[in-house]
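As promised in the previous annual report, we have extended the structural survey to additional targets. Below is the entry for Helix-turn-helix transcriptional regulator.
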Amino acid sequence: MAKSPKGMVGKTVESLGDYLKEQRVSAQLSLRQLAEQAGVSNPYLSQIERGLRKPSADVLQQIAKALRISAEQLYVRAGILSLEDGAGGSVELAVLADAGLTERQKQSLLKVYASFLELNAAEGDSHEPTDGPDSGTDS
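The corresponding structure token record, generated without further manual editing, is:
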């Protein structure tokens, strides 16, 4: 019954898995070969392709490198990046590319950033800062 409790996340992961499998097949790599080149286990990669697991940004980057495709494409497919909004892509990519952050820190920053974007979108046309332009300065 609880086939996909995560709803849209399951759909995103499934399309990611399908996309990865298409890329792997077109690169003429076996599952085992790609897993070895990406530095992940064969069963884990199989689970990603079947939509059972959602890989981290770091794992996606390793897979993209092994497939010789853009990591950004995989981030979009995995739902980590949303380029349709036209906002933020470069910030998200910078966070994901920062080797000084742990995976958990990267995900936390991306969640906070996304929540700010949602908040701003919900406020609509009000683009004025809530604090005055001189807030924090004593002139």
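The two ends are 63 Å apart (CA to CA). Confidence is low (pLDDT under 50) at residues 1-9. These points will be discussed at the next consortium meeting with the crystallography subgroup.
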